[in-house]
Structures are given as C-alpha cells and as structure tokens.
C-alpha cells in the first residue's frame, strides 16, 4: 500500500523490513515542442541535413523517498542555413528509492532512471519528427553509465580545483 504525497505521486510503501527498494512510481511527459519554421519550402531542399542533439537531465526530490528525474532532449535539424525543425521533449519519471545509501541513490538517479526514460523520449522524438512531415529519426542508444562516470570525473576535477585554490597562499600586500 502506498500513500499520496503532496505532489500527487504515490509514496513508495515502507519496505525497510524487506531491504532496499527501487520503484517506478510514474512516467509522464513534462513538456513537448515541435517547430518547423521553414515548412513547406524546406521540404524541397536537396541538401544533407545537419543534426545537433542536446541532452540534459534534472533531478528533484519530491519527498524523502521519491525523486523526479527529467530527461530532456532537443534535436535541431538545419538544412544549409535554414532550420528544418526543432524537436524538444522533457520526459519525466517519479522514482521511489527506499533504504539506500546516498551514493547508491546518486548512481541510480544518474544511470538507471534516465535509461528507463530514454525509450519514451526516443519514441516521442521520432513520432514528432515524422508527424512534422520529415523522415523518421531514431536516437541512437546512450550509455548513461559512461555519462555518469564522466560527471563523476568532472565533479572530482572541480573538487580538486577548489581544494587547490583553497591551499594557495594569499598574496603579499
């Protein structure tokens, strides 16, 4: 049995007697946008399209045990100097994390949660592009574990840089 929290998402049932738990509470679309500012003229262009992909992720704590993860994708297609389309999707999920250490929670939020959301993003982006009159486009699989490892390296480099700055002697007056 789960209780409703103040955000309308069911809080995971207490499962500490059975050990740690990771649950998918809800998966939903947070925001969708598709623009094709140069259609229908752009359909007649015979130039190789240039695609630019921007991927981002946000995490927000909804309650003590529930986190919202938002996987955002912006795909921009240009034909020459004209924009053929811009597809933006923010796919979200509420995930219950019970009885886990902070490091394990960080790993799950950075790897498993976006991996769960990605197929939804991929389908929605492809459907938007095709509905806009363009050939279907399928996002290639993304290695979220590799991206998370890179994020950890960047955090460590920033921490090392900050500790070096703190360790430097103050200048002479």
Automatic annotation (TrEMBL):
Q: Return the Pfam families for the record.
A: SecB
Quote a single Gene Ontology cellular component term. Answer: cytoplasm
* Compartment(s): Cytoplasm
Alphabetically, which GO biological process terms does the record hold?
A: protein folding; protein tetramerization; protein transport
Predominant location of this chain? cytoplasm
Matches recorded under InterPro entries:
SecB, SecB-like_sf
Q: Keyword Membrane on this protein?
A: no
Q: Which UniProt keywords apply?
A: Chaperone, Cytoplasm, Protein transport, Translocation, Transport
* Gene3D superfamilies the record matches: SecB-like
Give the top-rank taxon of the lineage listed in the UniProt record for this protein. Bacteria
GO molecular function list: unfolded protein binding
PANTHER family the UniProt entry points to: PROTEIN-EXPORT PROTEIN SECB, PTHR36918
Quaternary assembly: Homotetramer, a dimer of dimers. One homotetramer interacts with 1 SecA dimer.
Q: Which family does it belong to?
A: Belongs to the SecB family.
- Function, as annotated: One of the proteins required for the normal export of preproteins out of the cell cytoplasm. It is a molecular chaperone that binds to a subset of precursor proteins, maintaining them in a translocation-competent state. It also specifically binds to its receptor SecA.
Name this polypeptide is given: Protein-export protein SecB
Protein species of origin: Stenotrophomonas koreensis
Gene that encodes it = secB
């Amino acid at each position: 049995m789960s209780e409703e929290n103040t955000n309308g998402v069911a809080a995971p049932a207490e499962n500490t007697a059975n050990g740690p738990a990771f649950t998918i509470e809800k998966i939903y679309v947070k925001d969708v946008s598709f623009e094709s500012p140069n259609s229908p003229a752009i359909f007649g262009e015979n130039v190789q399209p240039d695609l630019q992909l921007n991927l981002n992720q946000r995490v927000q704590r909804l309650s003590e045990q529930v986190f919202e993860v938002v996987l955002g994708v912006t795909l921009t297609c240009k034909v020459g100097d004209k924009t053929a389309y811009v597809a933006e999707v923010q796919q979200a999920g509420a995930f219950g994390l019970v009885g886990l250490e902070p490091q394990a929670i960080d790993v799950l939020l950075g790897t498993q949660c976006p991996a769960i959301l990605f197929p939804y993003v991929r389908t929605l982006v492809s459907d938007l592009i095709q509905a806009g009159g363009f050939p279907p486009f399928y996002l290639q699989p993304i290695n979220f574990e590799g991206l998370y490892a890179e994020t950890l390296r960047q955090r460590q480099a920033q921490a090392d840089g900050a500790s070096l700055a703190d360790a430097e002697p103050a200048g002479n007056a």
